[in-house]
Write a structure and sequence with these properties.
By secondary structure, this protein is mainly α. It has five helices and no strands. 74% of the residues lie in helices and 0% in strands. It has one domain: Ferritin.
Amino acid sequence: MLDKKIEKAINDQINFELFSAYLYLAMAAYFSSLNLNGFANWMKVQVMEEQSHAKKFYDYVLERGGKITLTGINGPQNKWKSPLAAFEDALAHERIVTEKINNLMNLAIELKDHASTSFFQWFIDEQVEEESTADGIIQSLKLIGKDSGGLFMIDKELASRIFNPPAGVTI
């Protein structure tokens, strides 16, 4: 049985993961408006990742006998001053997600909930990748500066990203 404190914290995380998907969908729309379809593709894949994370938390709560409580999602930002600014916001957002996941782990450790500790470890590892990937794109964007040819090359590279759902998650 899932402790009520963990259940509430995971329900809050489900909501935040869905907000993350909403934010990345807004970023995809922003990139599409600039005709940066590779950047838009990257963000659409990110949307699917965040939805799968929400689903993974959702399934875990039910598997442990908990109750799902979904709440409203606030509207995200819709405009950025540049592709670099959008990715800087994405990285800042991922750092917030990392903090929230770490807080979940800390709560599980405090409650001596070993099953949840094991479950949260996957997300901790995932966040290392999320932050590193966003930062890598930021560094590439900084490197090219205002070079439209470089932006075109990054756009083509980001167009090749595909969604690979985590093991055991179906949406």
